[in-house]
Amino acid sequence: MAETKSEKVKQTKSVRDAEATKAIILAAAEEEFAQHGLTAARTEAIAAKTQVAKSMIYYYFKDKEGLYRAVLERSHAHLLQAIQPLDLETASPEVALEQFLRALLDCVSRNPKLPTIMFLEAVQNQGKYYKNSTSASIDTVLIAILERGVKTEIFRPLDPFQSAINIMGTCLFYFIGTGNIQQFPQGKRPLSKAMLSQHLEEAIAFSLAGVQKI
Amino acid sequence: MAETKSEKVKQTKSVRDAEATKAIILAAAEEEFAQHGLTAARTEAIAAKTQVAKSMIYYYFKDKEGLYRAVLERSHAHLLQAIQPLDLETASPEVALEQFLRALLDCVSRNPKLPTIMFLEAVQNQGKYYKNSTSASIDTVLIAILERGVKTEIFRPLDPFQSAINIMGTCLFYFIGTGNIQQFPQGKRPLSKAMLSQHLEEAIAFSLAGVQKI
DNA sequence: GTCTATACGAGGATAGAC
DNA sequence: GTCTATCCTCGTATAGAC
Burial letters for B136-153: b for 16+ Cβ neighbours within 10 Å, e otherwise? Predict the structure, then answer.
């Protein structure tokens, strides 16, 4: 389960190890798909990031689409793993919302390419490669919290559906835009530990304030 | 300047009209690039949306990249046209923020593909096709408003840079995700007039509440 | 399991008639 | 200005040796 997060996904690879190479390819593919999406991704580019031959992709994943599916699979799993264990029914709407956001942001901070992958899939392929539409199920959870908060008059009157989208935007837009729009203040890297935790706090504070009564 | 916004960008086109066909191609290209980005966009698909031959693209725009540049150009122009005329220095931070957001959301509501185009360009090409990086200059305006609001203690203490991103996310994420993730409540279309104006109000309310003192 | 070499199709771009 | 037909590169995928 250990993951290499370096740019050049390299490894000793002196001997033959099926699971190892498979993981290496998967990591490289994640990078490539996160930048380009399914169609524009180049299998050659993925192979180049690794130290293995291009044909290994086809050996392990059948074809480019298969590899893409595997990448989505993992993203999907990571997200569910972060959200599902939460018990959000019992806590107050405020607490539930904060817990939810903290879990979500924590997850994507550890997998910063996740939002971009999901977004590209949504835009380019209309989510046809998502079995159960991850984002849908996550949105549902968030909407439920918001509905409860409005009903109990703890939150201001707002549209739960629209607000769920807006909150997700607050949390995820950072990752979509920033890895790439490098006009960052005084050379701070957007994915550094400091910046990530700052974003986490800012996004939560902003969201909580955003639903609060005035 | 009139624009066709139908799916099938068709026209009478009985006679030869340079500017007309050029506009038709541009409109179709906007659609295609908004969904796929530069690399994954297919010139054949663009031609298919129009009624003109594929070679017309090359006649008018030199190559696929030239066409792409033209599309970005227009997006760029629309955005600047919406933001630049505003006088945001004199008004109070609250009013300035609302004016800014209203102008921004009004602009993208009329050009709903704009956020996706910008986002794809940022992710896939790191913004290398943006001359002056539109998003940067717009962000700068927003950051200035936030800084002023914090300094005058009208807004809560927040990081202007991070908050600018979060606010942009609140406003734009809707357009990035929704045209495609059709799991919309009871068949409401995300780009209908009603939904767009609802999003405008919700996003503004959410953003204003988000910067407010608690 | 891993590599090199190659077949083959898709798609960007051009030529040239009208 | 617009079309049809064609070229040729690039990139996916496979064959086959090791």
Answer: ebbbebbbbbbbbbbeee
Chain A residues touching B169 at Cβ < 8 A: 169-174, 177
Helix ranges restricted to H, chain B: 18-40, 43-49, 55-61, 64-83, 93-110, 114-125, 134-151, 160-178, 193-211
CA distance linking residue A213 with residue A155, whole number of Å: 6
Q: Domain of A169?
A: 5-211
Tell me the per-residue pLDDT of B28-40, one tens digit each, with 9 for 90 and over.
Answer: 999 999 999 999 9
Return the residue matching tokens 């990078």: A31
The CATH number of whichever domain residue A10 belongs to comes to 1.10.357.10
Which one of B37, B177, B185 has the shortest CB-CB distance to A40? B37
CA distance B144 to chain A (A): 14
Low-confidence spans in chain A with pLDDT less than 50: 1-13
Q: Which two tokens stand for residue B163?
A: 């908050």
Residue A63 tokens read as 């074809």
Contact between A169 and B165 using a beta-carbon 8 Å cutoff: no
Q: According to the model, what pLDDT value does residue B202 have? A: 98
- Per-residue model confidence as pLDDT tens digits over A117-168: 999 999 999 989 987 667 778 999 999 999 999 999 999 999 999 999 999 9
Q: How many domains does chain B have?
A: 1
Residues of chain A contacting B34 with CB distance shorter than 8 Å: 123
In chain A, which residue ranges form alpha helices assigned H by DSSP?
18-40, 43-49, 55-61, 64-83, 93-110, 114-125, 134-151, 160-178, 193-211
Which residue among B123, B177, B212 sits closest to A209, beta carbon to beta carbon?
B212
Cα(A126)–Cα(B44) distance, integer angstroms: 20
Q: Tell me, what's the pLDDT at A9? A: 46
Q: Note if the pTM is more than 0.90.
A: yes
Q: Which among B127, B165, B183 has the least Cβ separation from residue A174?
A: B165
Enumerate the residues of chain B whose CB falls inside 8 A of the CB of residue A139.
Answer: 183
Can you say how many angstroms the Cα of residue A25 is from the centroid of all Cα atoms in its chain?
Answer: 19
State whether the beta carbon of A54 lies below 7 angstroms from any atom of strand D: yes
Give the C-alpha distances (Å, rounded to integers) separating A63 from A16, A17, A38, A56, B97. Answer: 21, 20, 12, 10, 49
Mutate to test the interface with B, among A170, A178, A183 (most CBs of B within 10 A): A170
